[in-house]
Amino acid sequence: MNHHRALILGVLFACGTFGIPASAQQNERTETNNAKTSPNIVFLFADDQSTYSVGCYGNQDVLTPNMDQLARDGVLFDKHYNTTAICMASRANVFTGMYEYKTGCNFEHGNMREEVWAKSYPVLLREAGYLTAFAGKFGLVVDGKGLCEDDFDFWGGGPGQTNYATAKNESMRKYAKQYPHSTLSYAAFGKGVIREASKQDQPFCLSISFKAPHKPATPDPRFDHVYAGKQFTKPLNFGREYSKHMAPQSKLGRQYPRFSEWKYDTDYDGEMAKYHQQVYAIDVALGMIRDELKAQGIADNTVVIYTSDNGYICGSHGYGSKVLPMEESSRVPLIIYDPRSPLNGQQHRCNELTGNIDFAPTILEFAGLPAPSNMDGKSLIKLLRSPEQDGHEQMSFINVFGPLPTHSLTCLTKRYKYTCWWYGDDQMQPTEELFDTQNDPLELVNLASDSESSAVLETMRTRYDEEVAKWKQQAVNYNDYQRYGTLFDRTISMDDKQPFLKRQAKRKSK
Known about the structure:
This protein has two domains: 40-392, Alkaline Phosphatase, subunit A (3-Layer(aba) Sandwich); 397-500, Arylsulfatase, C-terminal domain (2-Layer Sandwich), CATH 3.30.1120.10. Helices cover 27% and strands 14% of the residues. It has helices spanning 3-14, 65-73, 87-96, 100-103, 114-117, 121-127, 182-197, 258-261, 268-295, 327-330, 359-366, 381-385, 454-474, 484-487, 494-497, and strands spanning 40-46, 75-77, 80-81, 131-137, 154-158, 204-209, 302-308, 313-314, 320-321, 334-337, 348-350, 354-355, 395-399, 408-412, 416-421, 431-436. The chain has an eight-stranded mixed β-sheet with strand order 5-4-6-1-7-10-2-11, with helices on both faces. Strands 13-14-15-16 form a four-stranded antiparallel β-sheet, with helices on one face. Helix 7 runs parallel beside helix 9 (268-295). InterPro entries: Alkaline_phosphatase_core_sf, Sulfatase_N.
C-alpha cells in the first residue's frame, strides 16, 4: 500500500466516513496472505499495570470482568516478564522482538534507528497485506520518521506521554465530546477501525497503547463509584520492613523514595483506588472492543492479546514505580485469546517463561510470516495449544535507566531470578540477589548467601555470564550500550571498570 492510499484511508476515517471508494481499495503491496484465512490481530497494551490489578491473577479486591472473561476464553500467562520495565524501551522491545541493547532505544540513550524500525511487526505486517492501525502512546521516536504515522493506515497515536484529556491528543479530538477521558476514546477508535477494516478484503492489526494507569493518577470520573470508600488488602511484602535484604544499589533510584512521596505509606487505600479505577476503565474499553468484533461478525477470526509495558511497585518492599527487577515491576499480565485454539474455554494457565520480546514473532506467525533472524523472542503460538512446553529456558531483564548504581542485568529462568548488582564504592560493595520466584514469589528470602543454594547460585551465575556474552556480541555501537558489556561482567574488578563509569559519547552506526 503506498503513501497516497494511506492518506486516503486516514482522512476518511478521521472524518467519520465509512465508505471507502474502490480506488482506495487497490492493494499496491505484495500480498503474501489471504484475507479469508489470515486472522485479524488486536494488541492491547496498558501502561504500568501490575498483575495484582487483575482479578484472574488472584486479587479479590478488584473488578476486571472483561479481562477475567478474556482469560477464561483464552490462555493466561503466569510467568510473563518485560525484559526492560520502562515504557520507551519496552515498547521498542515489543515492536521489534529484540532486547534493548539491540534496539538501541531508551530514555537517556536515544531514539530508534530507521533500519531497526524497518523490521518491526507493524511494518512487516503492512508489507504483507495487513491493514494496520495504532492509537495511544507511541512511546518512542524513530530517527528520520518521527512517530511513523505514515506506516499505519489508521492513526490515533501521540507523542511523549500523551494526555488523559482526549481533547489534548490531536489525533483523538473527534472523540473528546463523547469520551473526554482518553481511555474510552481509544476504545472508540478501535471500534471505528474494526468497522472500517471489516469491510475490506484484507486482515487488520489494531494496536492500542493506553496511557492508563500511568501517573499522575487521573481516573475517568464516570467510574468514581466503583471503588468509592474501598479498603484494599496490602500485599504480604508491603512496607520497608521487607526491604532490608534488598540490594543497597536498588535504593538509590527514585523507586525507593516514591514509597512515601506517592503516599503508599500514609494513604494506601486512596492511591490504590485511583490506580484500580484507571485499570477498570481499560477493562471497560476491552469489553467495548470485543463487543464490536462480535457485532461485525469477525470475533471468530480475531486474535486478542492483552498485556502491559511494565508492572508497578505499589509499596511492595517499601518501593514505588517500576524499572527494578523485582517481581512487581518486571512481571506483568498477559492474556491471549485465539478463537481457533482447541484450549478455549478451559481456563488454561501457562507457567512457561515468556517475555515482551515474544510479541513480534508471535504476531508475525499469526499472520503466516517468518520472524526475521535478528529477533530474540520466540512465538507463543505453541503455548496456546500446549501451555506446558516451549517457553524460554532463560531471559535477560535489563535496567540502564536512572542513576548508574541502579543499572543492572538480571537472568531469569522459570524458577529463579539472579541479579548481579555490579556497582561498588566506599558506601557499598557489589552484591548478588538470588530469588526462588516459584516458591518465594514475594521475594522475601535472598538465597545468594544461603550455603544450601550454592549449586543453584553457580548455575545462575553461569547463565548470567551467557547473557553478558550476548550483550558484548550483539549490542549496537551507538546510544551508549557498548560499555555495559564491561560494567555487567561480574569477573571484572571495580577498579578495571572505572574508565567505563562515565557515559560514552554518541557514535554513529555504520
